[in-house]
Amino acid sequence: MGSGGMDLNDITVSSTARPIVGYIKVSREGEPYLCGTRCEGCAEIFLGPRRACGRCGGQDFTETRLAPRGRLYNYTIVHRSFPGVPTPFVSAIVELDGGGVIKGTLDGVPALLDAVQFDMPVRVVFKEIAAAGAGEEPFLGFSFRPL
Amino acid sequence: MTDVFVVGTDMIRFGRFPTRTVPDLGAEAALLALADAGLSIKSVQAVYCGSFGEAGSMIGQRVLREIGQIAVPVVNCSNACATGATAFREAWMAIKAGAYDIVLALGVEQMGKGMLVSPGAGPIPTEGLLGSDTLPSLFAHVGMEHSRKYGTTFEQFAKVSVKNHHHSTMNPKAMYQIETPLEDVMGAEMISYPNTKLMCSVNVDGSAAAVLCSEKKARELGLMSRAVRVRASALSSDPYGSRNAAMPDFNAVTRIAADGAYDGAGLGPEAIDLVELHDCFATAEIVHYENLRLCGDGEGGRMIDEGTTSLGGRIPVNVSGGLLSKGHPLGATGIANICEIATHLRGEAGRRQVEGARIGMTHVAGHVVDMGSACAVHILEKV
């Protein structure tokens, strides 16, 4: 049971699709990606833009694209959430290859303990989420799927 | 700098009081604590009032309107679950600095039912779309990390609820005072694995207060017979961690405060006779055994298995029933813990008394999703 929305594997998106978080970006060619920032002082990777490094205080950064794959560091099966949020779903914390740690929903597996293991390899899949209002631009999010 | 003593402390029984006002809840605890000290509000020289929800709304002043508008400095504070302990610490620090002799620290919260909902930051709510940010899920992730590292089981986490609910049957101020056998805890509705409904603290209304006093004044007023010394106070905010954006690190923020408190007190964990720690969820208690240095890393599961942290064990934890049974009114918890420890140090804890308690520790650790964490640790000593 997935978190809703249309998977965007190898599909370009409308440049007006609205990212649901600031570190999802769309390239000029219409390709969605996760945006990271690398501190040139200590090589730490952050999600989205920064003024100064939270680790070393440095202010010299390079924008980078985060890898669309990684390994499952931590998960929980969520059975009760805020009103209106469909459950169960797998809340997943993934360490992306090359740096960056993000939380997302793991789709493509049943939301059962047997179906999920620490360190399982996953890929990042972008998805368009229809907005509630008619004529509104869709939202752009992502989920994880087993590699 | 002077030693600082708690010369009066009390709390109301936590519960649901939707028809009462927040100032009225706070006023009741304030008056109880003052009565416990044998002091009038007119002796108080400053007030530190902690309330996560009402700190921006002059809650301290509104309480004083109920009990005595003494025109003293009032500071209203908020620091997530460490709110009450932060108010207590500020009161302590003001006396230590020599600014006042007698200060009232008060914590109060009115919570409503259901899950706490954090303000969202993006264009649409991301719960379910980007994993889960509910507090039970955050602490489920904390427990799962411990499982990953050390193989801690669902059953071991569930035993925390069995223990704390059992303790609560001896605490008339706990909201719930019900035994919950292990099969009931594990069989309760699963909220976010491994936390079932009986492994989550309840949002309740409550208030607690403490009257702090300089040594000189305490002696002058003849208040030393029931005074409790504040041996150390420590407060930390979340340090940098590579996984912070995805997963708040309650371990790191707690270790900083715990180590700071031991350092300030000039003693180690072996000297602690009892602990009231932040069991917002059963998974939290296990990791905090290690974070507070009550055992080594990875030994948290063994501690609960062997009954080490039950009343009668080597280091009783949460004999009040903890947040899991007593309830967790955010602003009040940090001072309710102080009240519990002081009660034991004074030998007044009745059926749940930890025999011979001389030194106790309180711990609160809070977080607001995508915002930050705060952890406060205090060490109190019998005079």
Structure overview:
The complex is a heterodimer of chains A (147) and B (383). Chain A contains no helices and 11 strands. Chain A is globular, with a radius of gyration of 16 Å. The mean pLDDT of chain A is 90. Chain A has 147 residues and is mostly beta strands. Helix content of chain A is 0%, strand content 44%. Chain A starts with 5 loop residues before the first strand and ends with a strand. Chain A has one domain (6-146). Chain A has strands at residues 6-7, 18-19, 24-26, 32-39, 45-47, 61-65, 69-78, 89-96, 101-106, 121-129, 139-146. Chain B has one domain: 3-Layer(aba) Sandwich (Peroxisomal Thiolase, Chain A, domain 1). In chain B, a hairpin with a 2-residue loop joins strand 5 (190-192) and strand 6. Chain B has 12 helices and 11 strands. The longest helix of chain B has 16 residues, at 22-37. The two termini of chain B are 18 Å apart. By secondary structure, chain B is of the alpha/beta class. The model of chain B has no long low-confidence stretch (mean pLDDT 96). Chain B is 35% helix and 19% strand. The chains are: A mainly beta (147), B alpha/beta (383). Chain A binds chain B through residues 3-5, 18, 20-22, 44-47, 54-55, 73-82, 85-87, 89, 91-95, 101-105, 113, 118, 129, 131, 139, 141-143, and chain B through 115, 117, 122-132, 134, 136-137, 140-141, 144-145, 148, 189-194, 240, 242-247.
What's the count of strands of chain A?
11
* CATH class value of chain B: Alpha Beta
**Helix residue percentage of chain A:** under 10%
% residues in beta strands of chain A: 35-45%
Structural category of chain A: mainly beta
